[in-house]
User: What shape does this take?
Amino acid sequence: MKILITGASGLIGKALQKSFTEKGYEMLLASRGEPKDANQIKWSADTGFEDADLPRLEVLDAVIHLAGENIGGGLRWSEEKKKAIRDSRVFGTRTMIEAFARLEKKPKVFISGSAVGFYGDRGDQEMTETSPAGDTFLAGVCKEWEAESRRAEDMGIRTVLLRTGIVLSKDGGALATMLTPFKLGVGGVVGSGKQWMSWVSLDDVVGIVNYALENESLRGAVNVTSPNPATNEVFTKTLGSVLYRPTILPLPEFAVNLVFGEMGDALLLDSTRVVPKRLADAGYQFQYTELKSALEHAVK
Assistant: This one.
């Protein structure tokens, strides 16, 4: 199988490269800079591919599109940061779709990133893939992002949208950020602690992408989350238990708002209770369904 990956240097992209190498797949990695070797191709969210490189896309079986501005980092979202978050996803996907339109032989499957942020802040409601989009900034970004991705379906390309939750890995993402304060014994419940966190092990993200590549019946939005989301309070206590550290220093909601503003609401306080109905219906077998074992594996 020949696969193009954008966002290949990110947490998920690196894990996929390892998996695909083990499977003997050929990979073409999109790079913003000048390619350093034969398995790289120049691409940017702003300008897409260079015309001379389009023939290299004609031989692809699949495209996995993960590129996008990091939604974390820094203390607050400036208007410039929010624009970069949106544009990198919406316009970046648009350049990909425009490249597909120019190919005589199109890839069989397009697997595009999205996020559980699609659902917004929904309290205790259980979200499946048929639930409507929320009304937050990130929900709006995901809605536009997915709309661009779905244009591939109109070209006859099977399209899978990965609505990914909090990926558990010590090497990046939200958990990696949490580990230092928790290991120092200063971790604690955020806000009320009642907000739901939809998590997934990195191993299962890789497993789900491989499953999506290999199962032609899977298409459309797919919730890439464990079947068992947890409240922030449960997540906090479980992580503390796994690390053998106390979790007695809470971070009140007013402090989150004061320090992080809108970003704090989106990443720390919004409640999104998501279940992977389409994966369950399709028969995917999760490697980690319970939070404690997933965390133990992630931090070892």
